[in-house]
Structure formats: structure tokens, C-alpha cells
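Protein modeling request. Please complete all fields; requests missing the sequence field cannot be processed.
Requester role: graduate student
Desired output: 3D structure, C-alpha cell encoding
Chains: 1
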Amino acid sequence: MQSKLLILLIISVFIPSAIAQDDSSATDDEVSSALPVAAQMVEVDADDGLDLIADFYLVDPARPTVILLHEIYTTRESWEPLLLPLLANGYNVLAPDIRGWGETRGAINWFDAVDDVAVWFIWLREVAGVNPEAIHTVGSSMGSSLAIVGCAEDEFCRSAIGISPGWNYYRISLADSITERPVLGIYSERDRFPALGVPQMIETAPDTFVPLTYEGNAHGMDLFADEQETIVVAIIEWLNTH
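Delivered output (242 residues):
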């Protein structure tokens, strides 16, 4: 209970500033000044030579790190509702633009995108110098598949969180990954693909998969529109526990 109250207190301070940033009159400097640490733009080579672009926020290299993997039709900037609370709670954050989107660009290839997650794990450990055994992944929609599979394929990844996860998005199946690491799945009960996929996740991984269900049919980051505070608390509590 004390942990949840502390998280809520931090969120009450930082989420209003994040909401204020949606004001179209806010400048980039004003948005940046609301963050507890500045972003470092990172560029690394993917296995096929594509330049992968990300923002990296370093609070403390000894603290845990979270990789944020956005949904399709968006960029790394879509994580604003979660970014401030993560940083305020002491988590380092890496927010890449997935290949095919944002500044990373390139052709869309979801199998290569899974490999890109491994590239970011290597960069965090060997270049950024973060705690190598305290890295988590969080993804939304298609990004949830990258988060869950990418975490499962990394030996030391602590846990994954999928927002609106699907059992098989664009042929990236969770069948061989859902049992490998603790996974929190957040979804709306009438959101078609998560509603179809989550029962399979529960059946396949009853000991590692934990569902968190909301009413309605909001998908991906749209869930934050009505449920931002409760979702953020659930995510921070999950990360703190794992």
C-alpha cells in the first residue's frame, strides 16, 4: 500500500505536466524542461546496416532500464504518457523508433525488428553501461510482440509488458516466447485481437503471464486516454516487483 501511494504521489506531480505538453502552443524546449533528465539521441547499426535511432534517458546506470517499443503508425514520441512517470520513479529509459517508422525509417520487416531489440540490449550493456541484469521491455500493440519476444530471447531480460498484446501479429507469434519471462498483458476486453489472444496466453503460460483487463475497446496507447493513472501505477508496480 505504501508503495502504491508513493507511485500515485509521483504521478500526481508528473502527469499534469505531461498532459500540459499536449498543448500545441508548447515549445520543444518547454517539453524538454519538464523531464527530470535530458534525452540523448542514440544511433546504432542494425544487423543489416540500418541506422536505428532512439532517445536514451539516463537517471542512474545502477538503476533498472526500460526499453519502450511503440505501436505502428506512431514514433518513440508516443510514449510521453509513460516516460515522465518512469523517469520520476528512477528508471532509465530507451525509446527507439522501430524500423519503418520515425527517424529510423527503412523498410518494415518485423523479424528484423525483433533482431533490433537484441541490438539495443547489447548497446545498453556494452555502451550505455547500465545494470546488465535489470532491463525490462514494454511494448504497445505490435510493439508488445517485439517486447515479449525480444525479452524472451535475451538471457537476462527481467520481464516484459505488453499493452494490447496479440497472439500472432504480422506472423510474430508468442507461442515460443510467452513462457520464458514474466509478462504483464494490459488490454481492453472488447479489443478484438487481444481479446482473442490473451486466453491463449493464459492457457500457455499460467505461471508467467498476468492479464490486466479494462472495459471498452480502446487499443494500445489509446488506453491511456481514460486509464492513464491506473495503468501507470500498474506498470510501475510490476517493474518494482520484478
